Amino acid sequence: MGARFTGPKIAATARFLGSGPGQTASYLSDMVLSFTDRGIFCEAGGFFIDPWRPVDKALITHGHSDHARAGHRRYMATEAAAPAIRHRLGVKVDTVAFGEVRRIGGADVSFHPAGHVPGSAQIRVEVAGEVWVVSGDYKTEPDGLSEPFEPVRCHAFISECTFGLPVFNWQPQAAIMAQINAWWAANAAEGRVSVIGAYSLGKAQRILANVDPIGPILTHGAVEATNRVLREQGLRLPDTTWAGPDVGVTPGALVVAPPSALGTPWASRFGPSAQAFASGWMALRGVRRRRGLSQGFVMSDHADWRGLNDAICATGAERVFVTHGYTAPFRRWLADQGYDAGVVETEYEGDDAEDIEVIE
Amino acid sequence: MIRFAALFDVLDRTTKTNAKVAALADYFREAPEPDRLWTIALLSGRRPKRAVNSTELRIWASEAAGIPLWLFEEAYPIVGDLSETISLILPPATRTADRPLADWIADLIALTGQPADVRQAAILDAWDRLTTPERFLFNKLITGGFRMGVSQGLMTRALSQATGIEETALAHRLMGDWTPTTTTYARLVQTNDPASEGSRPYPFALATALDDPEALGAPQEWLAEWKWDGIRGQLIKRPGAFALWSRGEELITDRFPEFAPLADFLPEGTVIDGEVLAWGDNAPLPFAQLQKRIGRLNVPKKLLTEAPAHMLAYDLLEQDGEDLRPLPLSDRRARLDALIAGLPQLPLAISPAVSFDAWPALAGLRETARDRGAEGLMVKRLAAPYHVGRKRGDWWKWKLDPYTVDCVMIYAQSGSGRRATLFTDFTFAVKDGDDLVPFTKAYSGLTDAEFGEITNWVKRNTLEKFGPVRRVPPVQVFEIAFEGIQASSRHKSGIALRFPRMSRWRRDKPVSEIDTLDNLRALLP
């Protein structure tokens, strides 16, 4: 199988070497999607999926900044993902319902829940009976907020593998939320503020929707702006207060902020605090210590090892391309399991992406 | 083990010294005595004899997890810690057991020398009864390298708080070659028995870096001596005991057979603090010569003649069995001088005082340190006692400024442990004509933020991957500081650096302006 995928692999890695051939490389006929230096491309439909360079027509899986970038001429996303994309990029977005089939050029396209964040989708592309699915980012456990992940049968599956190593095994959400509730309660009892770092689109609202609201909840501007967008589209979140300049010391409060706010003067404004980061990376002691955090909650919006394997199995795909994450070992593991597996180099960034958000 | 895991968790989550000491002191008050003893042992670098090797652990863990060994090996460098990798990869435990730490360790000790299948069954059984945090610690007990972010000094302080025994007395009692199998908590901590001294060393006094000698006041109140670049050691001659300890509390008597004759000539009840050096023509040889002997249990004859060991004595800590540490340095030095003067020709001499009458003059002498085989000067207050550990104010080290070289990064590798997800281990090259020649690696010197930044750059600019190593374009220029340089036939560049580290990220400097191999060769002694 190896040789079959040489073409696209070279095309995708070539940009590192500074001699990229552009997007016009030739592809095998059964390649519904190809891998170019602008992103994943459907020749039959003339569109790209989550491209990282400006293109004419972009289908977007979800609103995180490494998947939804500025500068494209036309955007398409699910009805539930579009408001956040409009808010973040200030662009017009053509919307589509989950499961609705659109004919684009010679391709039939539909969006299916990926369970990553509200509105996030896997994108199914069918050309002449051959079905390929791009996973975007996904998780298999329902989070009480996002549309739960639905496996989509396909011939080829392009899967993220941010946590594609067997050391990543998530506990159920209920167990993690119990830890967060206990942490907040213990801090509140000692008069401390609990500052939790969570990506402002998705993780923050996932925590808000599931936390036991024992006290005031303050939010960073980036989180509150997303809350407003999601509330407007009908998602139910507990009452939150934007922690603007007028909000001072608030003992016993929970403060939800992007991870980049942890350890900054902004995070200390509300009084003596305990600070924690909710991320899959918190599974690794070294990462938690490197960030100088006393507390981490192992909560990810990406699938864990079991989740990735189950999801891939459920597609029935024989061919699997793995993108951002531990691609090389995960590809080899899939090949060992009998899949026709390849690696696609992309510019998606896994769970680090939202980490570089600026603070207000 | 649950209590021990809880202790570890507190120590691991805080960087506040007081919180660590308080948690440890609580543990020393409440835990069963055998557990306390083992905790003291682990925190002072002692560990149970290794019952299982790391290869066996990897194989058994990946079998238990139902994954191939190669996948385990891929995950290990990402996690950065073998014990943690195993604890994360195993399926959840099916049973629980709250057994004392000492019992688990006793089981481990009993496994040594057992057939592989017996050991495997025991380890798998243990893993199945331990929670993930306990498993991590259990694995650490097996693999060693137990670090809990607590120095021996902090541990001693906590033990002092828990027992009411003075810290310096405890520090001394905890020295030496005891193990939890040869003593008990009560004997080690609570009895004060001078007869049990044997070969037990004193805690080493340590110095602080000196910036401004003028701030020290009158020069005549200070002793200056060369800071030799060897192995700091403590030589002990007591009834029935002759020992040489390294500063890392390792017994190194047998590695340096040259010192054996000293046992016949030193009076009983003598303890000398000094520097072990490889010795040539009445002067120290470069550290590289001594390095050949470190880690060798049996020293070949060739090395004994090429790089004979010699001790330069700094201080006299015990004479006629009397602890001299409370005396002023001037008294101790006078006694040391007299003691050594009365000995026949032996590989032992006093480290000479460097006489000076004003600080600028001493600064001038310091510039000659490299020519003398020293790495700078030590400045010690003549009226000061011999302190336990690092006590700021009386002992200063005044090292030479390091050498520096501007070079370019060509390979990057991810770190381990705390730095597992960062690229922190870099290979650097200098110019040699039109070529770039790799000449050193360096791992330290940048801030976490800089490591984060360079990590992002490496990820986006990888040219090739070789396992964990990435080749990158020669663009990023760094200034490397180092303490010494040696000719080396083992390195492609023909040179080897001592203590290289990144001193500056030279974003201002283009690759065309980096140093050449000839610049480095010019520094060779």
Describe this structure in words.
The complex is a heterodimer of chains A (about 350) and B (about 525). Chain A is of the alpha/beta class. In chain A, about 25% of the residues lie in helices and about 20% in strands. Chain A has helices at about 5-15, 80-90, 175-190, 205-210, 220-230, 285-290, 305-315, 325-335; strands at about 35, 40, 45-50, 55-60, 75-80, 95, 100-105, 105-115, 120-125, 130-135, 155-160, 195, 215-220, 240, 255, 275-280, 295, 320-325, 340-345. Chain A has a 7-stranded mixed β-sheet, covered by helices on one side. Chain A has a 6-stranded mixed β-sheet with strand order 1-2-3-4-5-6. In chain A, helix 8 (about 325-335) links the parallel strand 18 and strand 19 (about 340-345). The radius of gyration of chain A is 21 Å and the shape is globular. Chain B contains 19 helices and 22 strands. The model of chain B has no long low-confidence stretch (mean pLDDT about 90). In chain B, about 35% of the residues lie in helices and about 25% in strands. Chain B has about 525 residues and is α+β, with helices and mostly antiparallel strands. Chains A and B meet through helix 6 and helix 8 of A and helix 5 and helix 6 of B.
